Amino acid sequence: MRAEPIRRRVKAVDKRKTGEVGLPRTRPGSDPGSAFHLRIADITVAVAAGEADLVLRLDEATEEFLVAPSSPDATVTAGWGDPGGASLGEPVFDSGGIWKLYRDGTRHRFLFSSPALGPLPYKEATFEADFSSGEVTLRRACFQAAHGLWPLEYPLDELLLQGLLARGRGVEVHACGVTDGSGRGLLFVGQSGAGKTTMARLWEGVPGITVLSDDRIILRRVGSGFTMYGTPWHGEAALAAPASAPLTGVFFLEHGAVNTLVPLRGATAATRLFACGFPPFFDRAGLDFTLNFLGDLVAEVPCHELCFARDNRVVEFVQSWAGSA
Amino acid sequence: MNTAPGSKKSHTRRSYVKPSMKRVHLKPEEAVLGGCKITGQFGPTVPGCKPLGNCSGLQS
Fold first, then answer.
1. Is A133 exposed, middle or buried (0-12, 13-18, 19+ CB in 10 A)?
2. Is B51 exposed, middle or buried, given 0-12, 13-18 or 19+ CB atoms closer than 10 A?
3. Helix or strand or coil: residue B21?
4. Which chain A residues have a beta carbon less than 8 Å from that of B31?
């Protein structure tokens, strides 16, 4: 267990308290050709600039997940070029938003476009079949390179982790995660508007509490149980911590006049968790893994629908449940 | 273990519960990571996107 008593917003997280290793790194954005190693949910991704005039720059939340160079699970090299310029292969998936996926042999090719940036794609990311390595191609005219940039900028960072997780590692869910004073991990699941940010703010500042994220949590099996991990991908409360805790309870958020808990089991719980997950809809094997993973999780971890009034009484209400579970 | 034909079952039968359909709401635009998670706006333009720290490298 690596949960530490971090109760600050990402801007103020103290690495000495998180237990993260001190880093021999330069200031973000100041070192052309620099490389970074990130560790999210115990998955290490190495990102390097492939050209001298490409400056990497991280946002504050992602910076908290930097680690010293170590053997990575995935390596990504970024450079300038003509995204989508070559034949992309077979179209596989259209997100309806800024990205589409193509399959070129066994490789995954994500193409990113936005009318705000002109008619041409602004970025392409190509990954090997197992997502262990990849390249990001950026259109120079679309970026303010002098200020530095992050090649894995949302949503590519989450798409890469999604690919890595779906290969037997875990599942990312739309949730707020907190640990209580005893190190128990409590997961509050819900789509936009369900109350994740509200819940995070109610727990923030409570003695002994760590908010791992107010918007995105990664779940993995560790040993005989499940562990939840904070991610850099926070919500409006801007809470993100590179920490983890054993998963003790899952709560599906609903607004209500009073605080109530209704147990959920089996397919009902698994379906609701799936609906708040980020599974690779374009990957049959990945979907199979995700469904099995969630089925196992809801069979082993107590799940409830939590109707909550939007005040701090819900903290004591949930702590009372956790203390008796 | 198979039960021999004609043997009496010792357990009581559970009452029949008619299958029912339960609808679980899915927000596909969220599930596919297709838009801005900060503003909740989706689609390729997201003109009002003011994320907290991310996307700072994009020209706008």
1. middle
2. middle
3. coil
4. 275, 277-279, 281
Of residues B58, B23, B33, the one with CA closest to residue A110: B33
Kindly list the residues from chain A whose CB atom is less than 8 angstroms away from the CB atom of residue B22.
268, 271
In one-letter notation, the amino acid at residue A276 is: C
Do the chains contact at A235 and B60, CB–CB below 8 Å?
A: no
Q: Looking at the predicted complex, does its ipTM rise above 0.85?
A: no
Give the pLDDT means over successive 10-residue stretches in chain A (325 positions): 43 34 34 78 96 88 92 97 93 93 97 87 96 96 82 93 98 97 95 94 94 97 97 92 97 96 95 96 97 98 96 94 87
Phi, psi of A182 (to 5 degrees): -95, 5
Collapse the DSSP code of A176 into the 3-class scheme (helix H, G, I; strand E, B; otherwise coil) and give the result.
strand
**Predicted pLDDT at A137:** 96
Helices A196-203, A313-324: axis angle to 10 degrees equals 80
B19 touches chain A (CB under 8 A): no
Q: Evaluate the CA torsion angle A246, A11, A124, A69 in order and state its sign.
A: negative
Smallest Cβ distance to B26: which of A93, A143, A275?
A: A275
Q: How far apart are the first and last CA of chain B?
A: 69
CB A116: neighbour CB atoms within 10 A? 16
| Ramachandran bin of A144, using left for φ above 0, alpha for ψ from -120 to 50, beta for the remaining angles | beta
Of B34, B47, B56, Cβ closest to residue A97: B34
Chain B interface mutation, best of A114, A262, A278, highest count of B Cβ atoms under 10 Å: A114
What's the CA gap between A201 and A311, in Å, rounded?
10
**How far does B13 lie from chain A, in Å, by closest CA?**
21
